[in-house]
Amino acid sequence: MRLKKKVFGLIIFLIISYFGNVKAQTYQISLLTCDPGDELYMAFGHSAIRVFDKIKGTDYVFNYGTFNFNTPNFYGKFAAGKLDYMLSVSTYADFISTYANEKRGIKEQVLDLSLEQERYMVEFLQVNYLPERRFYRYDFFFDNCATRIRDAMDLVLGDKLVWSEDEMNETDKSFRDLIDEYVINMPWADLGIDLALGAVIDRKASNWEAQFLPDYMEKSFAKASIVGDGPTRPLVKETRVLLDFPKQNSQMGSFNPYWMFWAIAIAFTLITYIGFKRKRLFLGFDMVLFFLLGLLGVVVFLLWFATEHSATQWNWNILWAFPGHLILAFALLRKQPKAWVKKYLLAALILADAAVVFWILGWQSLHPSLIPILLVLILRTNYLYYNLEKYRTLKA
User: Fold this and answer.
1) How confident is the model over 7-32, as a mean pLDDT?
2) Which of 98, 108, 302, 352 has its CA 20 to 30 A from that of 375?
3) Nearest by Cα to 375 from 268, 290, 277
């Protein structure tokens, strides 16, 4: 009789354990990390959350990296840093199909969450998908499709989520170094980014901060653990490849700012040499140069002072691409430029030299292709400063 009771008790225990386990596995929640693409907006990869309901059979992907092109004044808001991104939801099949068409790989990390944690995560995503909650003010470095997921995990798991010990330590890379890894073969995009973003991104990033990049967040998830909820276990219980495509050996195109700017520098050097020999100024070239640098300076100024972008502040490109160069370009149209022009040329020369010093001291990293442009600016401001009055009565 006792044996029967023990057997019966064991059967009951196994049945309860079985159904409890089934219940605990209602959801499968995964981090999806997508490979970079060929276009600039795809260059840094992408992160999303997959929620597979094993009972209902539904399979959805929650995506924080979407925005609405129909937003009024879309481009103005984007430039001003006032464009809101949103959480969107698509079926897993549609998500996979999109990336398959783009030939971009996807890796999945299945998270080892408890029943309570799974429910909390699903509830969190559902609440955040409400119309009044789904929009957020996008920040490329600190509030994007990857960091939103990381912060959600922190909220859901609380102090049970333990990142690796080195997560808060600095990497040996600055924010600029981190993004350069992804645009090295997109020289014009790389140049544009370096022109737009200021010295604030030249500080070293911690491993935690580097999670704004999906690849780095994937690595951090792989090293994280869950504690205080049963035995300590890795956050990720399974990693698998959903889509895989051969890596393209992309190379920098022949039309790039490096050779183009050096060609301009050589041309200005020849113009200056010929002008010195013939006692000519050739001011037409300078007017074009200062006009373009002045326009660029206006953009740098507006990004620094007239937007909500945090990464465009303290941009010392403004030392050589200065808005006042626009005024100088028109002032050089006069046959006899006013007296202030010479003083301005000296100031422009000093500012260009200061930009080089700031670069050397590491206060801001400038794009390497700008070396010839800075040399041209130093050469021409110096040449005009000493020769403008001397040759101003001659035909420029």
Assistant:
1) 58
2) 302
3) 268
Name the residue with tokens 């200065």: 322
Question: Which is nearest to 189 in space by CA: 198, 180, 176?
Answer: 180
User: pLDDT tens digit string along 335-362?
Assistant: 788 889 999 999 999 999 999 999 999 9
Report all structural domains of the chain as residue ranges with CATH numbers, in order of start: 27-169+207-243 (3.90.1720), 257-391 (no CATH)
Beta carbons within 10 angstroms of residue 183's beta carbon = 19
Gyration radius of the chain over CA positions? 29
- To the nearest 10°, report the CA torsion of 278, 281, 285, 288: -170
pLDDT for the residue numbered 341: 95
Residue 240: beta bridge partners? 108
Lowest mean pLDDT among 2-16, 259-273, 343-357: 2-16
Q: What angle do CA 21, 27, 31 make, to 5 degrees?
A: 125
Which of the two residues, 54 and 168, has the higher pLDDT score? 54
pLDDT at 12 over 50: no
- List the beta bridge partners of residue 204: 174
Q: Buried b / exposed e across 125-146, counting CB within 10 Å, b at 16+?
A: beebeeeeebeeebbbbebbbb
